[in-house]
Specification:
With 507 residues, the protein is α/β, with parallel strands linked by helices. Helix content is 33%, strand content 18%. The termini are far apart.
Length: 507
């Protein structure tokens, strides 16, 4: 064999970089933090921002919720094929819900993919990458059930001051438009002690805000036989010293009970914010969706929350154009929007999700009808969001300074932060140095549908341990060496390590 017959040599001692592309819900976002943690523990280094495929390993963490999810994936994979061909040693991995669903199809359609893994075995990624490299063939490994609760995996959190904390995985609902339960499996709850221990460890690291995360977060307890487990968990979070803000997403109206409302109202660090998916205001459509509540029940929850927490900001998810939706059905959705007066609504045009009962239902709504209804809903919600935000003008709010939430902050000489109710507020940059994670007090002077402005001087600045953590992390990243040597993945289950906005939009 001549030298020209040999493949170009790959320096296994050279630093190996990775890039993760995440699609879908907050559960996927948190899973990607775990994938990053796993890769960094195995010796990889994160590729610079905007790498756009210029990395040794590119991981796609996919979502199967949208009808065109597979087209989007294969389009992205196709664009990477020439780069992979010209870059010896480059690997591509596909995980997440679409990988769980399509399995062997991915490597058949895109044979340059090296690894396919599912939602239940994300911890295997480093091993599968190494196996693919050594054996020089694609590795497809899809577990049918959860091998280990994901929070036992190492995590590279995106934020130094705010963190996701998973309390459950999977979902026991059978909504006809949603394929997630088939891909994520039945609900499996973590033990309360493990959740609280993770929260305490995060606070010790400087985190001051956590978001409890689950596909159906307030069904927590069904797997451990305690119907009030979620409200007890919220109250227990209130006893963690140094934990300033607690949020959760996404709940289901069926499981939203009075004890949860009481826990929210009576626990000071549980924030006055609620994301409560509606999906439709029509009882007929809700029945067809297999949503186990009706309009009256939903509005009753909203009324109780507002009575207990007057300043609560309530947001929702709504699907327009579900099969069989009539004009009267759609008017019922508009009625609920007017009555509930949501601070924001995440609105979606129904699209077929292959593998769901709704995809084969009769009376699919024509695209032009769905589009027209969607535009009417968005216009109504924009009007209500603006009116509700105008009520904030003149109020004094306490904001946690955020990182990367104000796209125009540099040009406007402003900073951005989140109020306790999670509203986004852009405020005048004070003379005093403030960092993400610090807390400022401002007065709202202007309202837009999707944000507030505080154009006057900042009234107070409170430097926090969360700000210290952000500063320490930023300093460490600025002096980080260019790369590290690639180590082999560890054998066995990794040792437990503390992990770090709505669960799945289909809740």
């Amino acid at each position: 064999m001549t030298s020209s017959d040999r493949s170009p040599a790959v320096d296994v001692q050279a630093p190996k970089s990775y890039e993760i592309r995440t699609y879908g819900c907050q559960m996927n976002v948190h899973d990607s933090e775990r994938l990053a943690g796993l890769l960094e523990e195995a010796g990889y280094v994160r590729a610079p921002e905007g790498a756009d495929g210029d990395a040794d390993v590119v991981v796609f963490n996919t979502c199967a919720v949208r009808e065109n999810a597979d087209n989007r994936l294969y389009g992205n994979l196709g664009r990477l094929a020439p780069r992979k061909a010209s870059r010896p040693g480059m690997q591509i991995a596909v995980g997440g819900c679409l990988a769980q669903k399509d399995r062997d199809t991915i490597v058949k359609k895109a044979p340059w993919v090296d690894v396919v893994f599912g939602t239940h075995n994300i911890g295997k990624l480093p091993v599968l990458l190494e196996r693919a490299r050594v054996q020089e063939e694609a590795q497809v490994e899809i577990a049918e059930s959860l091998e280990a609760f994901p929070s036992t995996l190492p995590t590279r959190r995106e934020s130094a001051y705010a963190a996701w904390v998973s309390i459950s995985v999977g979902c026991n609902n059978t909504c006809t438009f949603c394929i997630v339960p088939a891909l994520r499996g039945k609900e499996k709850d973590r033990r309360p002690g493990d959740i609280l221990a993770e929260a305490e460890a995060l606070v010790a690291e400087g985190v001051s805000e956590i978001t409890l995360l689950g596909q159906n977060v307030n069904a927590y307890g069904s797997d451990i036989g305690d119907r009030e487990a979620f409200s007890k968990l919220l109250r227990a979070c209130g006893n963690i010293e140094g934990l300033e803000r607690v949020r959760f997403t996404s709940p289901h109206p069926r499981d939203f009970t009075d004890d949860v409302i009481a826990a929210m109202a009576e626990t000071p660090n549980v924030m006055p914010q609620l994301h409560m998916p509606l999906q439709s205001g029509s009882d007929t459509v809700l029945k067809a969706m297999r949503r186990s509540y009706r309009q009256e029940r939903y509005l009753g929850i909203i009324e109780k929350v507002r009575a207990a927490i007057p300043h609560a900001a309530i947001t929702t998810d709504i699907i327009v154009g579900f099969p069989g939706e009539t004009e009267e059905d759609f008017e019922q959705t508009l009625h609920v929007v007017r009555e509930a007066r949501f601070a924001q609504a995440f609105t979606f045009q129904y699209s077929k999700r292959p593998g769901t009962p709704a995809a084969t239902m009769d009376n699919q709504i024509p695209k032009e009808v769905v589009q027209a209804r969607y535009e009417r809903l968005v216009a109504l919600q924009e009007e209500i969001s603006w009116e509700e935000n105008k009520k904030q003008v003149g109020r004094t709010l306490e904001l946690m300074v955020a990182e990367g939430e104000g796209r125009k902050d540099g040009a406007t000489h402003r900073l951005s932060g989140r109020a306790t109710d999670n509203r986004l507020v852009h405020f005048t940059k004070p003379e005093q140095d403030v960092r993400p994670g610090d807390v400022v007090t401002v007065e709202v002077t202007y309202a837009a549908p999707h944000h507030l402005l505080a154009e006057g001087p900042v009234l107070a600045v409170r430097r926090t341990r969360a700000g210290d953590a952000w500063e320490k992390r930023t300093a460490a990243e600025s002096v980080k060496p260019a790369g590290v040597m690639l180590g082999l993945p560890k054998i066995g289950v990794p040792e437990p390590l503390a992990a770090v906005a709505t669960g799945c939009g289909c809740d």
